[in-house]
Structures are given as C-alpha cells and as structure tokens.
Amino acid sequence: MNLVDLSARELLDRFASSDPTPGGGSAAALVGACGAALVAMVSSMAKTRTGAPEERERLDTALRWAREAGARLRVLVDEDTEAYDAVRAAYRLPKATEEEKAARKGAIAVALARATDVPMRTAEACLVVVKAAQEAAAHGNPNAVSDAKTAAALAWAGLVGAAENVRINVGSPGETQSALLTELEEATREARSRLESLGLL
Amino acid sequence: MNLVDLSARELLDRFASSDPTPGGGSAAALVGACGAALVAMVSSMAKTRTGAPEERERLDTALRWAREAGARLRVLVDEDTEAYDAVRAAYRLPKATEEEKAARKGAIAVALARATDVPMRTAEACLVVVKAAQEAAAHGNPNAVSDAKTAAALAWAGLVGAAENVRINVGSPGETQSALLTELEEATREARSRLESLGLL
Question: CA of A170: how far to CAs of A19, A23, A179, A187, in Å?
Fold first, then answer.
C-alpha cells in the first residue's frame, strides 16, 4: 500500500512516530504535492485574471506543469521512505569478515546514492511547482491569488526540506556530489527569488 | 467525515479540483500539521544531541508544543473549509428587498470574521511549530536534524499560507483588522528570523 493511500490522519501519525520513516523527505514530497494541487485548482478555474485569452494559455501550461510535478511528487513520497529504509538495512548488514565488510560498504554506497537521488528529484519537482504557482498568481482568478501564493510557499518548503535530505545523505565530497550540491543551490536560489517576487519573502 | 480522514490521495485530489474548497487555508493547516508531526518524531526519539539530561527536558517541551499545535491544526483543516463555505453561502443569500440586503450584509460580515479568525489561529499554531522545530534541531538526534529543519520550513509555509488567507478575508481597515495584521506581521517576522537561525533562509 502506498503512503498516499493511507488516511491523512494515519499518515501524519506515521510521520509523528519515533520511527525514522516516513520522515522529512517523504513529508517534503507530500507538501510539494499539496502545492501542486493548489496550483491545479487555481489554473483550472474558469475565471482568469482579466479574461484575456493569453492568460488561459499561461494557466493551461501551469496546470500541465502542476499535474506532472504533482504526480511525480506523490510517487516520491513512497520512494523516499523506501530509499531511507534501504540505507538502514545496508548499515545492518553483517561485518564480521573482510568480505562482509566490503559487501556492506558497497551496499551502503548504493543505498546512499539512491537516498540522495530521490530528494534531489523531489527538489526539482518542487521548483517546477514554484514556477507554476507564480504563473497561477500572475494570470489566475484574483479571488484565488492567496491559494496560488500558498502553493508557492508550500512548494518552497518542500524544496528546502528535500535539499536538507540531499545534504545529509550526499556523503564525502567528490565530483558528482559537488555537481549535485551546485544544482541544489541554484534551485534554492531560484525558488527564493520567485518567492520574493510574490512578496512572500 | 473530516478532511483528514480522507486518504491523502483523495485529499490532494480535492485540493486540485477547481472547486474553491478545500483551498489554501486548509492546505496551510495540513502542512503545519505535517511539520508538527516531524517535530514529534524527532523529539520522541530516544537519542538526543549529546545525551545531556537538559536536552531531554527541552525535547519533552518541544514534543508537548508539537502535539498540542498539531492537534489544533488537524481540526483547522476542516474549520477553514467550513468557514469559507459559509462565506460563499452568505454571498448567495437573496438581496431583493432592503431587509434581505441588510440580513445578507450582516451574514457576510459574520462569515468573513470567522474566515479571518480561522487562518489567524492556523498562523499562530504554525508559529508554535516553528519554535518547537528549532528546539528539536538544537537538542535532538543529530541524524534527524534534516527532519527538524524540514519541519521548520513546512511550518513557516503553513504560517505564510494562512497569513495570505487572513489578508484576503480581513476586509476594510478598522481597529480589529489593524490589530490582527500587526499580530500577523510580528508572527511572520519571528518565524522568518527562526528560519534564518536554522540556515534555511
């Protein structure tokens, strides 16, 4: 059963339990999905900002972005928990012999790479939602501008939460790591500047 | 049936539909509740930052704050939708006669006051979660610091989303309105400074 098929109450209770999964990475994806849903709401309303036809086009694009990113984020809720459970399982592998030690080390590296990749994709999808929210705020129904701005704040929080999860799992510095962290910083900076344009920061 | 008793998937679908409720106010409360749940996770873990007894005390306090605020936020998910539905119902009241007009005007004022009060309480509860998250990040299990920081980002987003909903419903300026907006600005400023301390802004 997928986490998003649990009741919201049950899912919140699972986050609240002292068990490390589901944790911040899954919560970040869920909150990004929440932002995507609000963008979908605003951009599928019949009313646009002034009624100009180009607004409808911009909103249709925002709706497509929000739906695609939202669908990915719902899947990432589970992927993050699976990835982190795999990290924990790898650390529990036996390490009595040299062979076991080598196998365990390899398994940990593979699991950590995945536990870095998953929140990285969450951060990317959240950035798409921030962009779509900005479009919805600019061109959508003025009565729903608070919903579009809420969506942007939620997606920013999902991005920032995912970024913290990338950083904690990325491990010792190397070329791949430093490329990932640069991409993450750029995404964070872009999201922040979009929130500033919306008057949220 | 309460909104948090729906599956998370169904709740996301309801946010995504072009119907204005549930909307940003309910989503903000849900995301604040998500942040509260992550704080509860980190502060109920057996391991603390260094193992010092005062850390356990600080975390027990953070846990109590997170549980109380989280319980309120779960209820506010529904209250926000009910409050906004009441505003829409008031606007649909008949306005053919002077009496009807007066009754409708009164009903709208009452409904808008509630639709301001509910997100105001969401913002207040989210601020408590930001504080609790900061405690959890400072004194909790270092392996879960990314969860505590994610919680702070989520609660900030809930606060900012709720604030947008207060502003859109608060109506024409008056003493009550200006007191509310001042309280809101202070809460936003405090949350922002706490996020800056956590390196999230």
Answer: 22, 17, 11, 17
Q: Following CA atoms A188, A189, A193, A195 in sequence, which dihedral angle do they give, to the nearest 10 degrees?
A: 20
**B16 contact residues in A (CB cutoff 8 A):** 36-38, 40-41, 44, 66, 70
Predicted local distance difference test score (pLDDT) of residue A174: 83
- What type of residue is A169? N
Residues 6+ apart with CB under 8 A from A176: none
Instruction: Tell me phi and psi for residue A14, to 5 degrees.
Output: -70, -40
Counted across chains A and B, CB pairs separated by less than 8 A come out at 205
Stretch B22-32: mean pLDDT: 98
Question: Across the interface, do A74 and B151 touch by the CB < 8 Å criterion?
Answer: no
Whether B102 and B8 have beta carbons less than 8 Å apart is answered as no
Chain B residues whose CB is inside 8 A of the A37 CB are 12-13, 15-16, 27
Q: For B107-122, what is each residue's pLDDT tens digit? A: 999 999 999 999 999 9
**ipTM > 0.90, yes or no:** yes
- Confidence label for B187 from pLDDT (cuts 50, 70 and 90): very high
What is the rounded distance in angstroms from the CA atom of residue A181 to the CA atom of residue A60?
A: 32
Residue B1: pLDDT over 90: no
pLDDT tens for each residue of A126-177: 999 999 999 999 999 999 999 999 999 999 999 999 999 999 999 777 888 8
- What SS3 class is residue A45? coil
Task: Say yes or no for a CB contact (<8 Å) between A31 and B31.
Answer: yes
Q: Outline where DSSP puts E strands in chain B.
A: none
Q: What is the spatial distance between Cα A172 and Cα A152, in angstroms, rounded to a whole number?
A: 32
CB environment B99-137: b (16+ within 10 A), e (fewer):
eeeeebeebbeebbbbbbebbbbbbbbbbbbbbbbbbbb
Q: Which of A31, A59, A130 to mutate to test the interface with B (most CBs of B within 10 A)?
A: A31
Q: How far is the C-alpha of B36 from the C-alpha of B151, rounded, in Å?
A: 7
> What is the four-CA torsion angle of A36, A130, A161, B135, rounded to 10 degrees?
-100
| Chain B residues touching A122 at Cβ < 8 A | none
**Largest alpha-carbon pair distance within chain B?**
71
CA distances from B177 to A28, A147, B111 (A): 33, 21, 15
